[in-house]
Here is the input.
Amino acid sequence: MGFFEQFSLFIGGIAAVIPPLAGPMIADFWIVHRTKYEVKYLDQLPEINITSVIAAAAGIIATLMCTGLPTLGWQPVALLAQPWIVPSILGVIVSMVIYLVSFYVFKALGIHSGYSKAIENEGKNQEPALTGDEEDNIARVNI
Here is the structure.
């Protein structure tokens, strides 16, 4: 295989992988939290959001099922290999739907992830409110 054939395979791989990564971000920001992200929680986001990983993987698989990987001998699924189906858009839609389903299933089970986990952790890390006497004692010590 020549350079240009390898390059087109590389670009095709990127086109199959990158769009489904946006699906969980779109679903979380626009649908789950309705654009109400607060900047103070963004520093406390967990390193891995398992619902996003599951959703992105499902979207990538759906995209690859549309396009196939001929170099590896994988042929597209006949049902999804229609000229009117855009594989990248299908990948984004599948990853959004899987994210929403898994997010709400995990939430029903009491498992929070992503931005919701950062909000939950903020509530646990807050110090209890001081009573009037405690505030007076702190004020006297600081004087």
User: Anything to note?
Assistant: The CA atoms of residues 66 and 86 lie 8 Å apart. The longest helix spans residues 3-32. The chain has one domain: 3-142.
